[in-house]
Amino acid sequence: MISLVGTWESGRRDMLLALVGELSSRGLRVSAVIGADDLDGIDQPGKDSHRHRDAGAGEVMVTSAKRWALIHGGDDAVGRNDALARMSPADLIIAEDANAPAIEVRRAGDGRRPLRRPGAPIIAVVSDEPSDNPDVPSFHGGDVPAIADFVAGHFGLTLS
Q1: What are the start-end ranges of the H helices in the chain?
Q2: Alpha-carbon distance 29 to 66, whole Å?
Q3: Beta bridge partners of 61
């Protein structure tokens, strides 16, 4: 797993989306973990999934011909690590602000830095300005293929 960190509006979510697209188009099975302030948008009052949860279902799986979603909630909601353990196998998981080796995404003039957890080093910086740390590889945000090459190389993954 690799984490993307950055301040609000740093471009972190756009970079995550771009990396998922680039890495998956080059042959990797990639999964994404993104945060949300409120998950009620996927399980809205009046919808059957919500009604079943209100009736006491610990989990509700919603299926269609093209997709499925598992809604787990209530008093026994799982944390991020438990949720990750329930994901299907992948070559790489790209997550927002996870406790994993991280790529910091910055915008020019943004003096704020994200807080890092111990044991989760910044392994690269993506920015539209030169890096202030020569010991950490730096990439321009528009060079998604080079960032994908770096990520694959860091984890020993082969791209097509």
Answers
A1: 12-25, 48-54, 80-85, 144-155
A2: 18
A3: 70
What sign for the dihedral angle of Cα 35, 92, 7, 117?
A: positive
- Is residue 107 situated within a structural domain? yes
Across the strands, what pairs with 102? 3, 122
User: Minimum mean pLDDT among 85-94, 117-126, 142-151: which range?
Assistant: 117-126
From 112, 90, 94, select the one nearest 103 (Cα to Cα).
94
In 10 A of CB 136, how many CB atoms?
A: 14
**Per-residue pLDDT, 152:** 97
pLDDT of the residue at 41: 65
Residue 18, both tokens: 């771009």
Q: Note whether 106 and 118 are within 8 A (CB).
A: no
Do 29 and 46 fall into the same domain?
no
Which pLDDT band holds residue 74 (cuts at 50, 70, 90)? low
Same domain, 46 and 110: no
21 part of a folded domain: yes
Domain of residue 50 covers 40-77
| Total domains present in the chain | 2
Give the residue from 77, 100, 129 where a domain finishes. 77
